[in-house]
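Human: I would love a firmer grasp of how sequence relates to backbone shape in proteins. Take your time, and here it is.
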Amino acid sequence: MVKLPESFKAFQYQTGIDRIRDAYRASAAILEKAHADATQAYADYDAIGIDGDVHDADGTLIGSIGLTRAQAEMDAFLQVSLVREAFVTTTFHYWERSAKVWTGIHGFTNFRVLSARSAMQYPLSPQLETLNRLNNLLKHDTARVDPQLVNDRPDYFCSLLPPKPGSTLRKPKLQLQHEHVEEAFEIVRASGPTYQVS
């Protein structure tokens, strides 16, 4: 079997990241436009000030243009959020699968072992461990909050929910932005073989 040169391994790894990034950008652009359109449609309806509620003969609300538009805006927001989360997980798993190949590790292994073995061959981004924590939060339970991740990266979270009775602390909720996904690409790009473009 012929051993592949490092330059080819680097090219293969880096172009894989480019493909994932390009797929994300295409998907995100479409969904972000749909979200902006839904937000604008709701704002336009709200600005008109027309009562779009439909009631039956007993006065029970059976339909509402305003609620329908608000739901469409929320659905579009959730679609954008889910795509961001999916691409962060995809990107981290791309590194994980690649690192298993170049370290020769097969089957299950934990992040510490895999990253230590990988670091013997290639540089690792200092943010790779944080990306691993984010990936684990996304994979295993987005309702649960990783206190260390909240402490290290509060910009990943927002506080939509009011504090519980007797508490002044708001419960943080994961809310990734476009910049966080782009950052994940750069973390993974810096955590494997690289090559210089002439």
